[in-house]
Amino acid sequence: MWNEKARPRTIDDIAGNSELKTDILSWQESGAPAALLFVGPPGTGKTTTARVIASMMLGEDLSINYEETNGSDDRGISFIREDLKTFLRVKPVGVDRKVILIDEADGLTTQAQDAMRQLIENYSHNALIIMTANEMEKMRPAIRSRCATYRFKPLTENEGAARL
Q1: 162 within a domain of the structure (yes/no)
Q2: Whether the predicted model's global pTM rises above the 0.85 cut
Q3: H/E/C letters for each residue in 32-74?
Q4: For 61-109, what is each residue's pLDDT tens digit?
């Protein structure tokens, strides 16, 4: 499929969001924050950027140290407490930190978001938790306060043309 071929694979491939790109490059020396929250309309590169960060941190083989889920599908507290917590209890293999991506985290229930807050607090030493959301208002204040938040905007015509 063409859109998969065109999907960015490196930070340099990502169009727009220059502040985030600068920060990501600085993390290579200073270390990434405990948690990231990418907020913006659908199609603005939130998930793709999160996957690029995971690849930068973990290399090409994401299988052991990477977990990705969709907050609209796995939205309940049991998934967070059982599956994600179990994943985080096992130390990273061959890298400093694991990466969890929760796409559409604004679809998580209130209780699941509260459980995510606990995971961020308890496992930030060995995991980077990245959440994407279309609507900031649906994210609990306790989550927002514990994440480095980046707002994604649609690309301008010039940014889109430069990417092609």
Answers
A1: no
A2: yes
A3: CCCEEEEECCCCCCHHHHHHHHHHHHHCCCCCCCEEEEECCCC
A4: 777 999 999 988 877 888 898 999 999 999 999 998 999 999 999 999 9
